[in-house]
Amino acid sequence: MKLKKTLALGLAAAMAVSVQAPAAFAEETDLSELAGTTISVYTHGGNRVLGEEKKDADGNTYRDESYAYLKHLAERFTEETGINVELNVVTNEDEIRPLFQVEDDSVDIFTCPNWSLEEWAAYSEPYCTVEEGIEEYGDYATAMPNDGTYIYSIMPGRAYNQAVVYNEEVIKAAGYDEIPATLDEFNEMCEAIKANGVTPISLHRVENWPLATVQDFAGYVAGDANVFAECLKTENPFSEDAPFGKTIKMYTQWKANGYFEPEVYTDFGVAMDSVAYGRAAMMLFGSWVVPQIQGRVPEGTDPSVIKFAPAPDFGAGRYVLAAPADNWAISKFSSNKEASRAFIEYIANDAQFIADSGYIANKKGVEPIVPDLYSIIDEMVEAGECQVLLSPATDENTLANQDVLTEAGLWADYKYVGLLFDALDVTNPDDWSAYEKQVEVQNAAYAEYKDELGLEWQE
User: Fold this and answer.
1) What integer pLDDT is reported at residue 396 of this predicted model?
2) CB 327 within 8 A of CB 123
3) d(CA 53, CA 46)
């Protein structure tokens, strides 16, 4: 098993030196020579292509195309350059992975964010070197998908991520004007909301990926953005005295308290509707959710009723994660790489499009437009009431921790959270025996494969 890790690192290094160096940002391309080219963009951001889902007066769902920001941007790009853009909406990586596996050239650009580093390197054209990325985007570039040499997906926005997205009317009805500053006060607010017959937190537990927020909330619990990789420092990352274990236990305690929806939402759109319509008070998610929920509020409701604020202080201080936002990658198998790069740079230079998408333009020389949704966080950061944690780079320790979790059967689909969260029987919330047993199982598996792989924390 140690050989497996050595080979994996060797392969990554080999890919880094064998790929063709990407064009530098400063190099100019004569776009007139590309007029008539058609590029195909595959994106999981369907709302930016089709428009936000809204409800009419009769309760019927429709798409408001005024919110189809990517469609409008693509049309402007075509007008200015003569390069045609075909937009395709996909739900997740599984829909395009088979195309890459057979080296199909029908995909030019894609935005799906959840590749492993190995998949980014296998399927994406290197966009720039890490040094070039830092020159254009500052330290945020180090958190973009990269192997230490090349960045594979450029992320032109930056965002405050993984905070509390809430319906202001709901918390005011429970007697609160803002998200409380401490965990105890937060729990008291949830009880008051529940007493009003409203679900405190909308989760959408039918899938595992919504539990991914635990990974960042663990950083708030510890006051350390690198807490995921630092699992390697312990043999028992799922115990309550470790940041990850403590965070998962906190989420599961909220489940025991009845703070999540009593019935599983059928899909994420229904979960967002619950907050938009005030049937639930909040979600614990990133900024990307805010404009989507704002676009779903009932007709006649001011969208600004949906707000975004830092999570409470869980004991180590009050924090918010800052991260690069909005992956844009060029397929390694595209035959239109120059036109694809031109389109991505066009996006990076459009501060209004990036703000409309819920992010802040971050490219050097582009004047950012700060969306209103960040105003609460900006003011708290400015006042010293909340501290910023910069999303860490994917380094050797991160990859090693992923390897351990993978070998232990805990990594895929966030099983390391889901298995524990689901171990608690909500009909018997005082019985934590199954949960504690699952903690023992996961700790034992982590320790076993950490030892077998020969992986330890590297300073």
Assistant:
1) 86
2) no
3) 10
